[in-house]
User: What shape does this take?
Amino acid sequence: MSFRSLPKVELHMHHEGAAPPEFIRRLAQEKSVNLSGVFSEDGSYAYRDFVHFLSVYEAATQVLQTPEDYARLTRAILEQSAEHGVIYAETFLSPDFCGGGDVGAWREYLHAIREAADEGERDTGVVLRGIVTCIRHFGPDRAKPIALCAAETAGDWIVGFGMGGDENKGKQADFGYSFDMAREAGLRLTTHAGEWRGPREVRDAIEDLGVERIGHGVRVIEDLALVDVLAERGIVLEVCPGSNVRLGVYPHLSAHPIEKLRERGVKVTISTDDPPFFHTTMTREYDNLARVFGWNEDDFLDLNRVAANAAFCDEATRARILERL
Ligand code: ES4
Ligand code: ZN
Assistant: This one.
C-alpha cells in the first residue's frame, strides 16, 4: 500500500534543492553553463558527504539566474508536490541566490515566484508559502542583508525567517541580530540545528535565537532532559528522515530517533529537505515510516495536524488546510 494520495503538509524543503536534475540540466544547456562535477553517470546529483553536497547544491543553483528561472522552478515544485499528495508546503528561499542579497532584486525574484505559486495553486490546489533563509557558512555579516530582504517582504506570503547551511561553522548566537530583525518584522522563526552537532546546538537555537521550530533537531535525543524541554514548550521539529539516512546521520531508518521523540511527546513533522538530492519524495518518506515503525493512516493524520498547526501561514489559510486533511 502506498500513501501517495494521503493529504500531506510539508514544512521543510529547500526551493533549489527540490529541482529535479533534468530541470537543472535543461537550464544549463539553455544557458551554456558548464556543470561538470554536479551529476553522476546515472544522471543523479553526485556528492560524497554533507559539505560536498552543499557545494554541489550551490553549483547547480548557478543555472538559476533570473526571476523567470525561479518561476519555472516554482511551477515544477508545485507539480511535484501535488503528485505526492502535498496540499501545503513551505520552502526555504535564499536571497543570496535570488539577487545576491539586494532588496530590489529580491523583490523581483519574489514577485515572479509568487505569481507562479498563485497560478500553481489554481492548477494543483497546492498552497505554497516562503521562508527567507540565510546561510550559516556565509557568515553573520552576509546574513544581515538577507534578514533585511526578509523584513522588507514579510507578509502573507513570506511568513518566516530561517537559517540553513553548514552547522559546523560558527554558532547560532552569531546570527542573533538577523533573527531579531526578522522577529521584529513579524516573521516566525526556524533554524537548522541538531543534525550535525548535538543537543547543545538545539539549546542554542531555542535560547539564543528564540525559534519555535527547528530544522532536523533529531540529535536532541542525546539529551533526554532537553527532549522534555522541547515537549513542554511545544517546539516543533521539521524531521527529514530520508535526508538523515542518505547523508549518514543515521545508518538506517530503524536507527532514526523520530519514533522515540514522538513517544516522549515532542511535536514531530515529516519533510523531504532536498528530495531529488536525497532520492526521496513525500510518498517514499511515508511508505518507509509505515514499514519500519508500523505507522498507519491515523498516525500520519496526527502528524499532519501537528504540521498544519505549526505552519507559519495566517489563520484563515491554516483553517483551509486543516479542513482538507
Ligand atoms: C542546506 Cl543551505 C542548504 N541548502 C539545502 N539543503 C540544506 N541543508 C542544510 N542546509
Ligand atoms: Zn534543510
Summary: The radius of gyration is 18 Å. Residues 103-124 form the longest helix (22 residues). The chain has one domain: 12-23+67-324.
